Amino acid sequence: MRGGMSDMTIVLRSLRTRTLATSVATALVAIAVALLLVLLSLREAASQAFRRGTGNIHLLISADASPLVAVLNGLFYANAPANPIPWAKFKEIQEGFPWQWCIPTQLGDSFRGNPVMATSEEFFTDFEPVAGMPFQFSDGRVFEEAFEVVVGSTVAKEHSLSVGQKIVFAHGSGGSREGGHEHADHPYEVVGVLQPTGSAHDRALFTNLVSTWVIHAEERRAHETEASAADAPNPKGAATAAPSSTAADGHGHDHEHDHVHVDEADLRDDEKLITGILLRIPTRPGSDSSASIAAQFDRMRRDVSITVAQPAQQIGRLMALIGDIDWLFLAMAVVVLISSAASIMLAMVSSMELRRRQVAILRVLGASAWRVFALAITESTLIGLLGAGIGAVLALVGGQIATTFLQERVGVVIAGAVDPRAAILVAAGAVVLAAIAGIVPAVKAYRTSIARHLRPLA
Amino acid sequence: MVEAESQGGVSIRGLRFSYDRGFAIEVARLDVAAGEQVLFAGASGCGKSTLLHLIAGIETPEAGSILVRGTDICALRGSTRDTFRGRHVGMVFQTFQLLQGFTALENVMLSLMLGAPTLDQPRVRAEAALERLGMRDVHAPVDRLSVGQQQRVAVARAVVTEPSVVLADEPTASLDPANAEAAVELIRSAARVAGAALIVTSHDPALRSVFTRTVDVSQFGVAAAAGRKGAAR
């Protein structure tokens, strides 16, 4: 060593001579601190991400079993809703109140595991995926005709989609990579790519309702034709398309059917199915609330054929449910932190025989009992400080990984930034616990008998 | 605090220290003058090391005084005694008791840092002390040094603070006769250069001829009336 000696030199050398024990204790503190910080940051960020992910809608209507499921399916693409809403019901709701806007949506198809939402152009002009932040295009435009598709930013990036490309959708849930059979007869042309919004919509694709209705009507009618041919005495009669008045869903069907062509004008009312309605009630400028929201909510709740949800309220309920679980995680992280402090104490106490001899030498050289007490406390505090520092870095990296994972898998953008106040509090807690863990070995060092521990080793 | 009759050396008066095992040492009067070099002789277990520990203030007697450089070390309490020991008493142990994980130079500098923090240029002093004793590789970790080199470091550490007294506890116990003689000479010469009184304990009769004055510690041993009264520190 070229520089001068200090008490810190003694502490650092002491730590270095017990590298393994020091490393294990430091790693435990770091893991505990990182866990706590990640959980704290994600807890708040997840809540915010879900809250802002509902966009600027006031009410959501679906035929799902519960309002919470309706919100998770309709706005976060958890699953394709199982039950459809007839077009007539949409018209009835649309005309039943002077909404600021009323947007139909239909979910069911997918593109390589990403959900496809059929909707109207108002979805891009009126609906805001994040309140105050309307959709913006990084390239292209809104769909204007059938079989045109607008893709979310994450989908475009993941599958290298750009304007002008032709893609084919699969029948089935967006939640499955397998999906169902492909609608190979009807390729869609990418006409627009959206900018990232930080919402679940980034991993969805959007097309108009007519495209979806036509595809499914053709498939349904083809099945009906095949079924009629199978039942008929003369199999040769099977080639003619003969629409039936009963509309089966068509899931799980054989795909080697004859082609049946359907135009928009040919669509029957029972083939115009949607799965959701996004609603916004007129509000005063600068306000997001209106007394009419509750009134309309209560009015429509009486209709047992639909499920009405106030997304903000449902997300609040969801957060309350999750809240109990994440307190459990936080408690576990605190237990890990306390365990790490205990490990510091054990590491120091287990090396006490060697340490006592060192203490005795320092005392002979002039160090007071209080000084060796302080050296032991400094040593454990330093482990806490080092662990807290490494833990904070781990939390930053871990938070980033969690953010990326949640964005890609759940479609929820969580800015997993560590709150500086929480970080300081957790780090300070870790350091204080580490310092407390040093008290037992420090007392032992303080009470070390110089004479006994300077005797030659046997 | 009692004034020393022997300023700079060691003066013991009316000392009594009892062990747990029903044995005690009593020293009515013993003086070691400044710069004097004395051998504490006697069989193993007669109390040589204990007497050395009492002089260093590591053990506390039941009665009596021990003046080191005119200060009764027994009357000092807590950190005052530790500081005094670090500044005025240098110790050399049979197994050297060097701090593992530190270099030779650092071991010597630690002595200055803890015992004599007011002395200037600690690094230069430590290097000079080691060089005077023939240590070349001062930056080598002590666990890589030979026994002879470790002894040099231990001696340098004891004298670098310019103590009033150097206490060497059985410094030759683990050495062969040739090396024992060299080791004792090393310590004697270092103490002489530092101007310190030197007290060496040994049960080796051969050392009696080396020192001009030998104190037989066995004469201080008495049977204790009851259990131990002194306190170890």
Q: If you had to describe this structure to a student in words, what would you say it looks like?
A:
The complex is a heterodimer of chains A (about 450) and B (about 230). Chain A is α+β, with helices and mostly antiparallel strands and about 450 residues long. In chain A, the strands form two sheets. In chain A, strands 1, 3, 4, 5, 6, 7, 8, 9, 10, 12 and 13 form an eleven-stranded mixed β-sheet that branches. In chain A, about 45% of the residues are buried. About 5% of the residues of chain A have low confidence. With about 230 residues, chain B is α/β, with parallel strands linked by helices. Helix content of chain B is about 30%, strand content about 25%. Chain B has six helices and twelve strands. In chain B, the strands form three sheets. In chain B, strands 6-5-1-2-11 form a five-stranded antiparallel β-sheet, covered by helices on one side. A five-stranded parallel β-sheet of chain B has the order 7-8-9-3-10, with helices on both faces. In chain B, strand 5 and strand 6 form a beta hairpin. In chain B, helix 3 packs across helix 4. Chain B starts with 9 loop residues before the first strand and ends with a strand. The chains are: A alpha+beta (about 450), B alpha/beta (about 230). The interface between A and B is large, with 31 and 41 residues.
